[in-house]
Automatic annotation (TrEMBL):
<dbReference type="GO" id="GO:0031177">
    <property type="term" value="F:phosphopantetheine binding"/>
</dbReference>
<dbReference type="GO" id="GO:0005737">
    <property type="term" value="C:cytoplasm"/>
</dbReference>
<feature type="domain" description="Condensation">
    <location>
        <begin position="2"/>
        <end position="150"/>
    </location>
</feature>
<protein>
    <recommendedName>
        <fullName>Carrier domain-containing protein</fullName>
    </recommendedName>
</protein>
<dbReference type="InterPro" id="IPR045851">
    <property type="entry name" value="AMP-bd_C_sf"/>
</dbReference>
<dbReference type="InterPro" id="IPR010071">
    <property type="entry name" value="AA_adenyl_dom"/>
</dbReference>
<dbReference type="Pfam" id="PF00668">
    <property type="entry name" value="Condensation"/>
</dbReference>
<dbReference type="GO" id="GO:0043041">
    <property type="term" value="P:amino acid activation for nonribosomal peptide biosynthetic process"/>
</dbReference>
<dbReference type="InterPro" id="IPR025110">
    <property type="entry name" value="AMP-bd_C"/>
</dbReference>
<dbReference type="InterPro" id="IPR000873">
    <property type="entry name" value="AMP-dep_synth/lig_dom"/>
</dbReference>
<dbReference type="Pfam" id="PF00501">
    <property type="entry name" value="AMP-binding"/>
</dbReference>
<dbReference type="GO" id="GO:0003824">
    <property type="term" value="F:catalytic activity"/>
</dbReference>
<feature type="domain" description="AMP-binding enzyme C-terminal">
    <location>
        <begin position="571"/>
        <end position="646"/>
    </location>
</feature>
<keyword id="KW-0597">Phosphoprotein</keyword>
<dbReference type="Pfam" id="PF13193">
    <property type="entry name" value="AMP-binding_C"/>
</dbReference>
<feature type="domain" description="AMP-dependent synthetase/ligase">
    <location>
        <begin position="171"/>
        <end position="511"/>
    </location>
</feature>
<dbReference type="GO" id="GO:0044550">
    <property type="term" value="P:secondary metabolite biosynthetic process"/>
</dbReference>
Length: 677
């Protein structure tokens, strides 16, 4: 009989009694044909795991009967089926021992996996026998050996790095080693390491004169250019942290970021100053400074746990949240990425990512600590497939990092790839689609899938992708630990889905002015021996495979990744609900086609109103960046609800079903007859 049971919390006794009760209720239907049930459910398989408990009481009766002139020599059962897993439990009539046998169809589980599952049964039965009143949800089915494998062996990532250095210090050391080597390229501008360091020093000294120093925050609002990168270095040289502000962000969002960060100084460009919302900060433009001056590296009291930057990402409350990242976390990341996937002084990096997206740090700053060359492209080029293809052909980079959307855009624009097969391609920010893997592998030297939230410093795991292999997020980078845990923070077995937690040297301080959210997402690390160690709750579902690599399987909440941007759908809904013509609303990500996802808003208008799509999108654009504005909004009479009164997002109609049908075509004489009538 198919049995569906939702486990909750309670003791082993509670669990056994609840399953027994449900099984008793099913017994009345035990003769109903299984094939008929399957037919009524569309022909799909009803279950793939079978559990069979056998206890032939008659055997014991025969043994106990003195009148019976017979002897039970033993018992044996044989069964073969095509279920993924068959669990057979039999009670020996003579010894009363429980015998457990597992069978598989030969495709789903390996022998090693079946041995592990058998071990979980043994662990569980021992736990029940030991204390049937214990809470079953807190039970750890893992053996000591497997627990050590998951928590220790696969997280043995300790590697040395410059723990006492800051990002700017690594750059200064590199500028000292290779002063005349080319460092930064943009359009017709080229800066050597000496020139970039000198110009950054001029800005840093000027900022120090304005009172900027360690621990302070400085706004950075600049268009993509060589000066944009010089400004980053100059801010870091003061010991302050930079707050990237995208010039294309709406005024309302920029105003909130300036208010929340409380920056006292903003580094910008003359043509952008007037576009900034009202603020109290002092604005500094590099164009107003004598960048040709020769000044030494600034001296300052610095410690590596000082913040390097604050990145504002989408927040479920309707306002973005600022994540504070320290220098030490970034320096650890630099050392790890330089080793694997690998980056050196011989590399040419094409930088295409917005500075407001934390992965830009890999493209812009890491190369300058190694002696490599950074080729910065404008926003216009980065978002235009044909122009970006032209840049690739001209620069011939050896490394480029981009989101799947950008790689797909290049493929659609006719990019033929790197003839010298030197290009190392890093892909991250959202799920890597299988359909672009082979085309990319044909166009470069290697392809890497990168995974990590902003809160754990850019990327936390990585995996080199091979043709025909599953797309994994791989293994943790240096000095990083990854745990897959159940809701009770117990490690899940190999192959079992849980929530992914990340610990180690990459963790952020937390969220600015959000102590509640920091405490909710950054938790004590129960597996670390380091006092005060924390782990970050990613909200991503994952599992380990038998080779010690991670596969990411989606989210536990409503956060989504779209074209590399992390989006809280709740933030869009909060803003949309404030429109005077909107009574209620919902926002989802809709799959239009393979590799093409779009944001769709569903709106129940106030009685007597019918807001137009253009009106709703314009309203959202005033408060949200363009990547968070739905492509379309659908008007509904009411939102579908679940039985408990929540919005049933799975039953929101597909947008195309609600488009008005075209008028039926009819013959001209039919129109004339209608007019005559």
């Amino acid at each position: 009989m198919p049995l569906r049971f939702q486990a909750g919390t309670g003791s082993w006794q509670d669990l056994i009694q609840a399953v027994f009760k449900q099984e008793q209720e099913l017994l009345a239907h035990r003769w109903y044909p299984l094939a008929e049930i399957q037919r009524r459910h569309g022909g799909s398989a009803l279950f793939d795991v079978m559990f069979n408990y056998t206890h032939f009481h008659v055997y014991k009766d025969l043994v106990a009967s003195s009148a019976a002139d017979m002897k039970v020599l033993g018992q044996h059962g044989f069964e073969r089926n095509n279920f993924a897993l068959s669990t057979n439990v039999m009670v020996d009539p003579i010894s009363d021992q429980i015998r457990l046998s597992l069978q598989s169809n030969g495709e789903t589980f390996t022998t090693r996996q079946l041995q592990r599952i058998a071990g979980y049964y043994v662990q569980t039965l021992n736990a029940i026998a030991s204390d049937a009143t214990a809470a079953y949800q807190a039970h750890n089915v893992l053996s000591e050996q497997e627990q050590h494998l998951l928590v220790r062996s696969w997280n043995a990532t300790e590697q040395p790095y410059a723990r006492d250095k800051g990002i700017h210090q690594l750059f200064e050391e590199q500028a000292e080693r290779t002063p005349d080597a080319p460092a930064i390229h943009f359009a017709n501008t080229q800066l050597s390491y000496r020139e970039a360091n000198q110009q950054a020093n001029v800005l840093a000294r000027h900022l120090q004169g304005l009172g900027v120093g360690p621990g302070m925050l400085v706004g950075h609002c600049m268009e993509r250019s060589a000066e944009m990168l010089v400004a980053l270095l100059g801010i870091l040289k003061t010991g302050a942290a930079y707050v990237p502000i995208d010039p294309d962000y709406p005024q309302e969002r920029v105003a909130y970021m300036l208010e929340d960060s409380q920056v006292q100084v903003i580094v910008s460009q003359p043509w952008l100053v007037d576009s900034l919302p009202a603020h109290q900060a002092q604005v500094v433009c590099l164009e107003e400074l004598d960048l040709a001056m020769t000044v030494g590296n600034p001296e300052l009291d610095f410690y590596p746990q000082q913040p390097a930057y604050i990145i504002y990402t989408s927040g479920s409350t309707g306002k973005p949240k600022g994540t504070i990242l320290p220098h030490q976390s970034v320096v650890n990341f630099f050392a790890s990425i330089a080793q694997r996937p690998g980056m050196s002084a011989d590399d040419r990096i094409l930088a295409v990512t917005s500075l407001s997206f934390d992965i830009a740090v890999l493209e812009l700053l890491l190369p300058l600590t190694l002696g490599a060359q950074v080729f910065v492209v404008s926003r216009a080029v980065a978002t235009n497939g044909a122009e970006l293809v032209q840049q690739l052909e001209q620069v011939r980079p050896t490394l480029m990092q981009a989101t799947p959307a950008t790689w797909r855009m290049l493929l659609a624009s006719g990019w033929s790839g790197d003839e010298s097969a030197e290009l190392k391609m890093l892909c991250g920010g959202e799920v890597l689609p299988q359909e672009i893997v082979q085309p990319l592998l044909e166009r470069g030297a290697s392809l890497w899938n990168m995974y990590g939230p902003t809160e754990t410093t850019i990327w936390s795991t990585l995996e080199q992708i091979e043709a025909g292999q599953p797309i994994l997020i791989g293994q943790p980078i240096a000095n990083t630990q990854t745990y897959v845990l159940n809701p009770q923070f117990v490690p899940t077995p190999v192959g079992v889905v849980g929530e992914l937690y990340i610990a180690g040297d990459g963790l952020a301080w937390g969220y600015r002015h959000r102590a509640d959210l920091t405490a909710e997402r950054f938790l004590p690390d129960p597996f670390s021996t380091v006092p005060g160690a924390r782990m970050y709750r990613t909200g991503d579902l994952a599992h380990w495979n038998s080779a010690g690599k991670l596969e990411c399987l989606g989210r536990t909440d409503r956060q989504v990744k779209l074209r590399g941007h992390r989006i809280e759908l709740g933030e869009i809904e909060t803003v949309l609900a404030q429109h005077p013509a909107v009574q209620s609303c919902a926002v989802i990500v809709y799959q239009v086609a393979a590799g093409n996802q779009q944001l769709v808003g569903y709106v129940v208008p106030e009685p007597g109103t019918a807001p137009a799509l253009a009106e709703l999108r314009a309203y959202l654009r005033a408060a949200l960046p363009e990547y968070m504005v739905p492509n379309t909004c659908v008007l509904l009479e009411a939102l579908p609800l679940t039985p408990n009164g929540k919005v049933d997002r799975n039953n929101l109609p597909a947008p195309w079903r609600l488009r008005r049908p075209r008028p039926a075509l009819c013959r001209p004489h039919a129109i004339a007859l209608k007019r005559l009538s």
